[in-house]
Amino acid sequence: MPTRIVLADDHVLVRQGVKSLLEREGMQVVAEASDGQEAVQHAQALNPDIVVMDIGMPTLNGVDATRELGRCCPKAKPILLTQHDEPQYVSEALDAGVKGYILKSQVASDLILAIRQVLRGEVYLSPGISGAVMAAYRSKSDRGTDPLTARERQVLQLIAEGKSTKDVASLLGVSVKTAESHRSRLMQKLDIHETASLVRYAVKRGLVQV
């Protein structure tokens, strides 16, 4: 039986290239998604073996989608594709429970190997990431813990993407009042009270990329 994969990236051409690579190796892409929220929904519905995701996606990024998969679909093993080898991105991904972290420049050589290794219960990091892993864990105490809930992190990402409170409410399927409440609560927790500073915090935590 072929390995069943959900593939998520907000760039159609990237998805097509990765899908072609997977199918040449006899793997089955059972669904495609353009953001993390859609990827989680497909995983819940289809119970795949692997979820391959870009780290930087709208609505819900790959790291927070990984956290969500850990709660709702623990059998689906997440692998992140990224252009980032900076310590904060690697650390956030490992903390979230990612099973594979692959640099996009090495997808052609690494992805199939990573999937096979992850299916054996191992964690795969692209060659060259080990230095970033060490730096990430050394600097972890400097970054401090993130006080936000998963929903507040998603609201923060949407705010940083320029979404209005009404847009946030619509995307999350909640009332405008609830969206406003999430926004107020996260601003209080972070002691940040203007949008520009929220955006800087979101970039620092790897929720959005610039």
CATH superfamily of the largest domain: Response regulator
Total number of distinct structural domains: 2
Percent of residues in β-strands: 5-15%
Q: Provide the CATH topology of the largest domain.
A: Rossmann fold
Runs in which pLDDT lies below 50 for 5 or more consecutive residues are: none
Please compute the radius of gyration using only Cα atoms. Answer: 17 Å
What does the main sheet amount to?
A: 6 strands, parallel
What is the second-level CATH architecture of the largest domain?
3-Layer(aba) Sandwich
Can you offer a commentary on this structure?
The chain has 210 residues and is of the alpha/beta class. The protein has two domains: 4-140, 3-Layer(aba) Sandwich (Rossmann fold), CATH 3.40.50.2300; 150-204, Orthogonal Bundle (Arc Repressor Mutant, subunit A). It is built from eleven helices and six strands. It has helices at residues 12-24, 36-46, 62-72, 87-96, 107-119, 130-138, 140-143, 150-160, 165-172, 176-190, 195-204; strands at residues 4-8, 28-33, 50-54, 77-82, 100-103, 124-125. Strand 1, helix 1 and strand 2 form a beta-alpha-beta unit. The chain starts with a strand and ends in a 6-residue tail after the last helix. The mean pLDDT is 88.
